[in-house]
Automatic annotation (TrEMBL):
<feature type="domain" description="PUA">
    <location>
        <begin position="2"/>
        <end position="87"/>
    </location>
</feature>
<dbReference type="InterPro" id="IPR019614">
    <property type="entry name" value="SAM-dep_methyl-trfase"/>
</dbReference>
<comment type="similarity">
    <text>Belongs to the methyltransferase superfamily. RlmI family.</text>
</comment>
<dbReference type="GO" id="GO:0008168">
    <property type="term" value="F:methyltransferase activity"/>
</dbReference>
<dbReference type="InterPro" id="IPR041532">
    <property type="entry name" value="RlmI-like_PUA"/>
</dbReference>
<keyword id="KW-0963">Cytoplasm</keyword>
<keyword id="KW-0489">Methyltransferase</keyword>
<protein>
    <submittedName>
        <fullName>PUA domain containing protein</fullName>
    </submittedName>
</protein>
<dbReference type="Pfam" id="PF17785">
    <property type="entry name" value="PUA_3"/>
</dbReference>
<keyword id="KW-0694">RNA-binding</keyword>
<dbReference type="InterPro" id="IPR015947">
    <property type="entry name" value="PUA-like_sf"/>
</dbReference>
<dbReference type="InterPro" id="IPR036974">
    <property type="entry name" value="PUA_sf"/>
</dbReference>
<dbReference type="GO" id="GO:0006364">
    <property type="term" value="P:rRNA processing"/>
</dbReference>
<keyword id="KW-0808">Transferase</keyword>
<dbReference type="InterPro" id="IPR002478">
    <property type="entry name" value="PUA"/>
</dbReference>
<dbReference type="GO" id="GO:0003723">
    <property type="term" value="F:RNA binding"/>
</dbReference>
<dbReference type="GO" id="GO:0032259">
    <property type="term" value="P:methylation"/>
</dbReference>
Length: 395
């Protein structure tokens, strides 16, 4: 195994079992490891620190896997890690709340670069690191053994693979191709999931709990669901008999799927309007036309892909939330989210406070949203915490 030597003074994070070593922290590489090869990390004195995947094309040059020198990272090691992650989701699946969840969440499940989502009997897999790509056959085999899925579909078409010097990979890996829409249940609501063409791996199951929590407030209310995608918040609000829901998304496919999801569920004459538009434009239009709502949901895509983008993203979040506040009825509720890992809750609250000042409104935080148990946050990898939200009463 090839040795990689860490710079003096860079030991702390490794000793604290943080799984990333940046290229700038590396003193030297004793040999020429292939990308994705497992190497030994040594301190400057030559003492063992950890084993990890090596990649010289990535800013994260090493993704650490194991800190015990005596342990061999073999097939059994990988199978065990997969088994532990899958077993940890059994309570979510057994409660009957859903048949759909994230089974494996990358570093947060000690499997850097591997994401597996379960949609009823079908699995969608995403591999984002070259190291994990080498282990793919074992992962697929273990998932088949544990779950016997109807299909496993490769959605490794994310642009982040480029950072690892990898080509996209897409298509059926095991079983027969899934139907165009796989029917799943979440919070008692039925959805058709387009595994091959949907965004990310097809569905945002990370909002499962938050949709239910928000819906508790929606009875008899007029709701505006911005960035609605396939209707998660929209449908949960109808389930609790919202008076009306308006869904806004810029994606034609998302709106089309939302409409078919609405039909899948037997709500009694839902008063629904779907608008395919840019949310910022549409919010301004509502403002001009004097249309107001009891509840506004803002669940935008990731505005800050990295810490360096945070300042610009903060302005975008502020402006979006200011617009959202301006079309709320007095005392209305704003459910606002950020899925940018670089944005922490304290900063997010500050941004909402600024937006309120600009809008001339008073805001009370009445609930904090977070990511659900199938998207765990490892204590040694705080970067895994990405989804946060605030339920605000706006006066
Ligand atoms: N709330 C959704 C998930 C939202 S994902 C749920 O519960 O499932 C973000 C969505 O924002 C995507 O559907 C994307 O199409 C949409 N989007 C991105 N930029 C947009 C914009 N400027 N205007 C409107 N929609 C946008």
């Amino acid at each position: 195994m090839i040795d990689v030597v860490l710079k003096k003074g860079k030991e702390k994070a490794v000793l604290h079992k943080h799984p990333w070593v940046f290229s700038g922290a590396i003193e030297k590489v004793k040999g020429k490891p292939a990308n994705g090869e497992i190497v030994r990390l040594l301190n400057i004195k030559g003492e063992f620190m950890a084993y990890g995947f090596y990649n010289d094309q990535s800013r994260v040059a090493l993704r650490l896997l194991e800190w015990d020198e005596q342990v061999t990272i073999d097939e059994a090691w990988w199978r065990e890690k997969v088994g532990v992650a899958v077993a940890a989701r059994s309570s979510i699946l057994e409660e009957g709340v859903t048949d759909t969840c994230r089974l494996i969440f990358s570093e947060s499940d000690y499997l850097p670069g591997l994401i597996v989502d379960k949609y009823a009997d079908h699995l969608s897999l995403q591999i984002l690191t070259s190291g994990m790509e080498n282990i793919k056959p074992v992962i697929i085999d273990e998932l088949q053994k544990l779950l016997n899925p109807a299909s496993i579909f490769d959605r490794s078409d994310a642009s982040s693979r480029e950072h690892e010097g990898m080509q996209p990979s897409f298509g059926i890996l095991a079983g027969s191709p899934p139907p165009e829409l796989v029917e799943v249940v979440e919070n008692g609501i039925r959805y058709g999931i387009n595994i091959a063409e949907g965004q990310k791996s097809g569905f945002y199951c990370d909002q499962r709990d938050n949709r239910r929590i928000l819906a508790d407030y929606a009875n008899g209310k007029t709701v505006l669901d911005c960035f609605s995608y396939t209707g998660g918040f929209t449908l949960n609000c109808f389930q609790n008999e919202a008076k009306s829901v308006t869904s806004v998304d810029s994606s034609a496919l998302a709106i089309e799927t939302l409409k078919s999801n609405l039909e899948l569920n037997d709500f009694e004459q839902p008063d629904h309007r779907a608008i395919q538009s840019d949310v910022n434009k549409q919010l301004r239009k509502f403002r001009e036309e004097g249309e107001t709502f009891d509840i506004v949901v803002l669940d935008p895509p990731k505005y800050a892909p990295s810490r360096s983008a945070l300042e610009r993203a903060s302005r975008a979040y502020k402006d979006l939330n200011r617009l959202g506040m301006l079309i709320l009825k007095p005392g209305g509720l704003l459910a606002t989210f950020s899925c940018s890992g670089a944005m922490d809750m304290t900063t997010f609250k500050q941004i909402i406070a600024w937006a309120a000042l600009d809008a001339g409104k008073q805001v009370q935080f009445i609930h904090q949203f977070c990511q659900p148990g199938d998207h765990p946050v490892s204590a040694t990898f705080p970067e895994g915490e990405y989804l946060k939200g605030l339920l605000c009463r706006v006066l």
